[in-house]
């Protein structure tokens, strides 16, 4: 039941991010064309200003869930699988601490901007600034679930967090603790680490 609800939430979040991103791209393109003809839409800039933070911050949660955030693993990839997992747990823990510290500041910023109205839309600027602390809450949940998956598979050297997408079943992956298991998807570097 909870897994199904989380999968539905993940899908809704992905559609929401896609909608916001397409809205920003479409409005920017449309406004550029209209500006060429001397008829720019003043509301397009404010709509983009409204949609972009939601796309960026919630997109960061989607990217975190799909292991697609920018990362440098040149050093970490040379370590043993258990040390890699320990470092991943440490990094996710640091991310949680930072986001917990940022959330109250973000909500305070949103409240301080609540009476500020956007230039051409009757929307509070607080709706723009509240996107960051709200996305941080979801990213904390993602980090907690990542840590849980790493701990569950800590002794499984075949487990690779980059191939584990939260909210979706892992095709061809069995969470059985089996060091000799090789589904043929491991790279040469992953095989040499075990």
Q: How would you summarize the topology of this molecule?
A:
Elements: H1 2-36, H2 42-65, H3 81-112, H4 126-129, H5 131-152, H6 188-193
Helix pairs in contact: 1-2, 2-5, 3-5
| CA(first)-CA(last) distance | 35 Å
Poorly predicted regions are: 170-194
Tell me the series of helices and strands, N- to C-terminal: HHHHHH
Helix fraction? Answer: 55-70%
Q: Which class best fits the helix and strand makeup? A: mainly alpha
Radius of gyration: 21 Å
Number of strands: 0
Determine the mean pLDDT: 85
Largest sheet: none
Can you walk me through this structure?
By secondary structure, the protein is mainly alpha-helical. It has one domain. Helices cover 63% and strands 0% of the residues. The chain has helices spanning 2-36, 42-65, 81-112, 126-129, 131-152, 188-193. It is elongated. 20% of the residues are buried.
Task: Give structural attributes.
single chain, 63% helix, disordered C terminus, 194 residues, mainly alpha
Give a summary of the structure in a few sentences.
With 194 residues, the protein is an all-alpha fold. 63% of the residues lie in helices and 0% in strands.
């Amino acid at each position: 039941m909870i897994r199904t609800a989380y999968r539905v939430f993940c899908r809704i979040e992905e559609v929401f991010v896609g909608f916001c991103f397409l809205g920003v791209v479409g409005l920017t393109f449309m406004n550029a064309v209209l500006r060429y003809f001397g008829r720019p839409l003043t509301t397009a800039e404010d709509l983009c200003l409204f949609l972009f933070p939601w796309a960026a911050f919630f997109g960061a949660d989607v990217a975190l869930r799909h292991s697609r955030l920018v990362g440098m693993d040149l050093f970490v990839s040379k370590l043993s699988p258990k040390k890699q997992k320990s470092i991943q747990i440490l990094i996710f823990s640091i991310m949680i601490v930072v986001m917990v510290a940022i959330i109250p500041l973000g909500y305070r910023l949103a409240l301080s901007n609540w009476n500020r109205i956007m230039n051409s839309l009757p929307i509070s600027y607080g709706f723009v600034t509240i996107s960051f602390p709200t996305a941080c809450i979801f990213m904390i949940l993602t980090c907690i679930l990542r840590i849980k998956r790493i701990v569950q598979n800590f002794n499984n050297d075949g487990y690779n967090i980059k191939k584990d997408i939260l909210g979706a079943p892992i095709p061809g992956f069995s969470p059985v603790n089996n060091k000799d298991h090789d589904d043929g998807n491991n790279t040469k570097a992953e095989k040499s680490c075990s």
